[in-house]
């Protein structure tokens, strides 16, 4: 991981860490009030936890489910690593703070090094972080995992329009209509059609979350239904692109998204949707259209995180 990738004030860097293969635990301690503490006893788990501050480690170990503790641990490690790589400080100096909107960031002491704006999201087993060493660039990220197995029974029971309207507080009236009437690119059976529609729905959801997180507000923002996305195209996973040079984990990228607010086109925000593996999408938003996105990097603990923790400022 090149330092110039993260320290460039004119570029947004983007990382993903998959916790599924990391920090294993025995089947008898998947959840419970003391599950995280018991899980933490593993040698590899201790190695990662020891990189956190006491407060951060305590927060991780409060989780009832081990899967949530792992996601919290990964989030903290990515934040510290981003600060070390971008701001040329040691791991012990990579103090995570918050801005006025309670978004995590790094503010250097006495202006000695770069500021770092960053945002984190997790879903399933993925944790994503986007960052930029420029205090004037606002960024947001969201990860969604399309779990058709979870949603399909309810959709079949309620019907597609009724299921979509359950979430109408998050979308504009036009977005709700677009989601309800959207049809897949090819003819499919009923269940596969619903699966395709769910992917399209979650593309909208992912964009909305990333945009809101860029602003520092929540999904209860009063202007939420006044802001809408048009020309939303859910990116296809690499497995559905046999003739594409893209292979492996990273699939299609969708960036021709139109943003509208109170009926006016928003032109000073850039957004992108990236397909990852078969069921994930990652949305990125930035307040500066002149600041490009770096390609996503799949972060490795041994090659990226632990070396950053050992380096000197």
Secondary-structure blueprint:
Elements: H1 3-7, E1 12-18, H2 35-39, H3 43-49, H4 54-60, H5 66-87, E2 97-98, E3 104-106, E4 116-123, E5 126-132, E6 139-145, H6 148-158, H7 160-165, H8 173-181, H9 190-215, E7 227-230, E8 250-254, E9 258-261, E10 264-266, E11 270-276, E12 280-286, E13 293-298, H10 301-310
Parallel strand pairs: 1-13
Antiparallel strand pairs: 1-5, 2-3, 3-4, 4-5, 6-12, 7-9, 8-11, 9-10, 11-12
Explain this structure to me?
The chain has 313 residues and is of the alpha+beta class. The chain is built from ten helices and 13 strands. A six-stranded mixed β-sheet has the order 2-3-4-5-1-13. Helix 6 (148-158) crosses helix 9 (190-215). The longest helix is centred in the middle third of the chain and has 26 residues, at 190-215. It is globular.
Features:
single chain; 313 residues; alpha+beta; six-stranded mixed beta sheet; four-stranded antiparallel beta sheet; 10 helices
Largest sheet: 6 strands, mixed
Discrete helix count: 10
Question: Would you identify the regions where 5 or more consecutive residues have pLDDT less than 50?
Answer: none
Helicity range: 25-40%
Nearest-integer average pLDDT: 90
Query: What structural class should be given to the helix and strand makeup?
Result: alpha+beta
- What pattern of helices and strands is seen along the backbone? HEHHHHEEEEEHHHHEEEEEEEH
What is the 3D form? globular
Q: Percent of residues in beta strands?
A: 15-25%
Radius of gyration based on Cα positions: 20 Å
Number of strands: 13
Task: For the record, give the distance between the C-alpha atoms at the N and C termini, rounded to a whole number.
Answer: 16 Å
Main sheet strand line-up: 2-3-4-5-1-13
